[in-house]
Structures
1.
Amino acid sequence: MKVGFGTIIKNALVLFAITLVAGLALGFVYQMTKEPIAAQEREAQRLANQAVFPAAADFSDELPLDEGVAAQLAGDATYGKVSIISAKKALDAAGQGIGYCVQVSNKGYGDKIVFTVGISNEGQIGGISIVSINETPGLGMNANKVLVPQFTDKPAGVFAVTKSAASSSSEIEAISGATITSRAIVNGVNAAVAYFDQVLKGGT
């Protein structure tokens, strides 16, 4: 069956109109949801900061990121595929800095794991708080239960994963059956400590 030129033009215009309407609708939905999503992310970060620095009365705005050091850490295989996302200063009631919250992400077994590391001015890890994780249920998803408590009140040094019970403060016992997840988090903490040592330590 022969299709006329006018029919082709008509069909093309209909397709264009449908595509245009769909594009405008998607753009509208994006604009409507962008701010609520951003607000949720800010709240998640605030809660993570408070979790790793419960003594803090407030937190500063994001500090300027040292792109050079961040890129150096991201390119170092020691830390895996780590990214330094942001750093904020933890403040006491008088507005004095008592430490830093460094947010990092690292590639886990399933997806990127985003978490915050709290480090005091004295070089003590107050704790870590996971913001986003999507690992294997029953294995890597046990990170909050198994890994997070092990970092509380540890000296901010270089940590290593062990498959047996930790025998020193620098060892972190891996999640059973989830070594990749365990290493991703431990290496991310090590990168946060390295960033603290190279950029933040001794800051005002």
Note: The CA atoms of residues 121 and 198 lie 13 Å apart.
2.
Amino acid sequence: MLPRELIDLMRDLGVFPVVIGTVNNSGEQHITFITWIYPPDERKLRLAISSGAVSAKNIRETGRLAVQIFAPDKALTCYGTAREVLEKIEGIPFDVSVFEMGIERVENALFPGSTITGIIPFAHTGNVHKMTELDAKILTALKSKGE
């Protein structure tokens, strides 16, 4: 299960950078960085991914997903099964799908004698206003899907 303080932090910050890992039916692994993720509760994560991305295709194929979360004093890897719950978020200028992951296991990824001092530093580049509007639309879809 996700710790309550981590759920609160992820919800408060809105966009929250994480690293996800997927695998296809041939066993080919894929790792990528995303920021559209929301924890509806301690046993689930919802994430939005460009519909045509390798990660989205892999989740549709196998459902296998790992999410690595870095936060103050935490480096957690969540393993579970995900499924597509929304094929396309309306009002977005490109296809973005929503997936929901049931967390089956959470592991501490810190090695002894280490800690994490913050979240992954992240900033939008380019048209910050448009990206902020896009983030808001996608986060609204993540929060409302399935509730």
Note: The chain has a mean pLDDT of 95.
3.
Amino acid sequence: MIYDKIENLERYKGFPDIYAGLQFLKSATFETETARYTINDNVVANVSEVQTAETNPLDFEAHRDHIDIHFPLNGTERILVCPIENLKQYSEYNAETDAVFYKNPGARAVEITVGNGYFAVLFPNDGHEPLLCVDKPEKMKKIVVKLKV
């Protein structure tokens, strides 16, 4: 996992796909249309409108073929992150959505807050529970950049 501010994107020049995704995030505004954007052959960005909540009924998710970069354009979002080896898988891997879901059987998760310029890069071994509210549930526009592994 990487947790940083978008103003530090130059630190990631040595990682071309991560850097390309971060450049997209830095140039995006709240007026960026809700859509899927192709950045390069390995990187796409999904801009969507989402709702945070006190709990996420899907619990933790992980991806095998993609790295995620989570970045709200407005508001803030809590994300719990835990290595998948400390979680209990409860769904079969879905290759079409590149997702598998896990429960947390008491493992310690790291809690981060994205938004207000902060982003998170989540790797395939990072189980993550996104869309959790910080203070109270809120609607937000969010970008999730997907990088092929």
Note: The chain has a mean pLDDT of 96.
4.
Amino acid sequence: MTPALEVRDVRPHEHGPLGRLMVNVYANLEGFPSPDEQPAYYEMLANIGRFAEKKDTQVLVALSTTGAVVGGVVYFGDMAVYGSGGTATSETNASGIRLLGVDPAARGQGVGKALTKACLQLARARGHDQVILHTTQAMKVAWTMYEKLGFERSSDLDFLQERLPVFGFRLRWTDEAAQADGDRGSVR
């Protein structure tokens, strides 16, 4: 991981840069729908800062040593506002993670892992016993990271988003997961 990487709640002046980063990341995923195919989805990405207005929801940002936005994610402390298809929104005692994105120039530096661990810390602080996320085949590279952190495929959470298969993952707390989730450190 980049030693001086900062992960914290996004600030209003960072909403635009984070939204542009998200649109760029998702638009360039091979096999993922384009902005023309799913304009509402890309509008949501461009306005990712609005998620912070939802109940029990935080938008986290990762910043480089120069203060540049290099990644972001949305953490949901209440699955009722998670906003995915499928059954995830009815899960109880659970937190959710959506819309993880990392600047291609910062990949391989631990940005995605740091953002995910920050969400895990928030879930544990809330006392939730599981964390749920969704991903697609186009994001397969992230699957390995999620699995190393203790997430397992959970097909009961799968759904279709406009003909796009979306795959559910779940991490339930165990002693091993508590060790792996990075209880060290905190989100500012």
Note: The CA atoms of residues 112 and 147 lie 13 Å apart.
